[in-house]
Every structure is written in structure tokens, then in C-alpha cells.
Design goal:
Length: 250
């Protein structure tokens, strides 16, 4: 079954009105990555992502709340993709750039921690680690604000540390293994990671826009990019999560 009628003229997508000039398909950049890249481009225009905001901690009550509405519209028609843009978009790219020794551009510790103003305060080899905001900000923030910044940082860092263990598991296995990321947490991961990339000077102009979804039908699987998954006209169908007979082609 073809994913799109051949020769069909581009239709304007309700999210941004744009049509991708690089259609998604086998071997192309997956939709999860494209969606994160769009979020990162939006976040890059915000003051908290600017170079002069380096070292400013972010979290709930520290600007993260204001960043969520900037990226939330990206998922208006694809709420189920928030989790995957976070776990396999934001975290994937951050892992490649900072944790994977074969590809990293900068180390997560101390580079990312420095630009985000939060991280490890104790020596790396200390058995009892001490996490916190940078000393320059500790006296300016309430205890609750510091805790919020550290919690957001730790959630991202801890998942990067074990990223290889779950980077290839299926949609259905995510809940089974208790890697549960709801929409609110997913958006926070995306926003935090996008700010980190922006402060590091990384842009995502080379990653194409998410492709237009013309009509209900089979399209490249938005998570794996392999095989096809059904788009019902409103959202992707994830039969593994509901134990319903699946039409997903993996």
C-alpha cells in the first residue's frame, strides 16, 4: 500500500502551514527527530536560550514553564509523539553529542552542566555525589527553585547515562519497562535539551521539517523510521499500548 498518492500536490499542514521539501521515508531522518528539531528552532528564539543566558539554571518556576507554550503547539495534532520526541529525539541527539565517545562534540560533564548552571558539585569520583546549581546562583534562588533545577537536570542526565539500554526498545515495551514519560515531563525534557543545545551554539537548520500528513493512511513509522504505521487523521495509532490488534508494520 503506498504511503501517499503519487503526484499529489502538497497540502498545508494545520500545525505550521509548511510542506517539507524532504519527504519522510525509509532511510530519511525520523519524524521524532524532525519534531524535536522544530521545537529546538522555536526555543532558540527565546531569551533563555541566548548565549548571554549561559549558566542560568532553568526548571519549574525558573523559566521552564514559559518555554512549554512555545513548543506545545508542535504536538497539537500529534500528542502521542511528545514522549518520542523527548526520549528518542531530544535525548538521542544529546546522547550522540555528549555521551557517546565515538561521536560526541562536547562532554556532558562539565560542558553541558556549565552552560545550564546546574550539575555535579562534588568531584566526579566522589562516591556520594552532590548536585546543585552553580555557586553564583545558589544565593539568588529559593530552595524550591534550586530543587526544581536539579530535578530537571537529573532526570535528563540519568536517562542519558543508560540511554543505550532502552534506545531500541519498542513502543509497547516502554511502559512495560517503566520508562514512563507523560506529556508534561516530555515537554520539559524537550525544552531543557533545546535550551542546552542553543546555549552550546548548535542549530538544527540542517534537519528538515516534519512532513505533511496528507490524509489518514500508512506513513513511515514516526519513531523508528522503519516500516509503516497508521495515521488516523488526528494522531498515530499505537496498538501495542492498548493490547488491540495492530495494523502497525514494523
Amino acid at each position: 500500500m503506498p504511503m501517499k498518492p503519487v503526484g499529489r500536490p502538497p497540502q498545508r499542514h494545520p500545525i505550521n502551514g509548511n510542506h517539507s521539501h524532504t519527504p519522510e521515508g525509509p532511510g530519511t531522518i525520523q519524524r521524532r527527530i524532525r519534531l524535536f528539531a522544530r521545537c529546538a528552532r522555536r526555543i532558540a528564539e527565546e531569551p533563555l536560550a541566548a548565549p548571554d543566558a549561559r549558566e542560568v539554571p532553568i526548571g519549574e518556576g525558573l523559566g521552564l514553564d514559559e518555554l512549554i507554550p512555545v513548543i506545545e503547539p508542535v504536538f497539537e495534532y500529534e500528542p502521542s509523539m511528545i514522549r518520542w520526541a523527548a526520549l528518542r529525539g531530544a535525548l538521542t541527539l544529546l546522547y550522540i553529542d555528549t555521551y557517546d565517545r565515538t561521536s560526541r562534540q562536547v562532554p556532558f560533564y562539565p560542558t553541558v552542566e556549565l552552560v545550564m548552571g546546574v550539575g555535579l558539585l562534588s568531584p566526579p569520583d566522589e562516591p556520594d555525589e552532590v548536585l546543585g546549581v552553580s555557586p553564583a546562583w545558589a544565593s539568588q534562588l529559593t530552595e524550591a527553585q534550586q530543587e526544581s533545577a536539579v530535578d530537571t537536570y537529573k532526570f535528563v542526565r540519568d536517562r542519558l547515562a543508560v540511554y543505550e539500554q532502552y534506545s531500541k526498545i519498542s513502543v509497547g515495551e516502554v511502559d512495560a519497562r517503566r520508562i514512563r514519560v507523560g506529556p508534561a515531563v516530555g515537554l520539559e525534557i524537550i525544552a531543557w535539551t533545546a535550551v542546552a543545545f542553543s546555549r552550546l551554539g548548535r542549530d538544527f537548520d540542517e534537519i528538515p521539517e516534519p512532513d505533511v500528513l496528507h490524509a489518514p493512511g500508512w506513513y513511515p513509522d514516526p519513531v523508528t523510521g522503519q516500516g509503516e504505521r497508521h495515521w488516523n487523521g488526528t494522531d498515530w495509532e499505537w496498538p501495542e499500548l492498548t493490547n488491540q490488534p495492530g495494523r502497525s508494520r514494523r
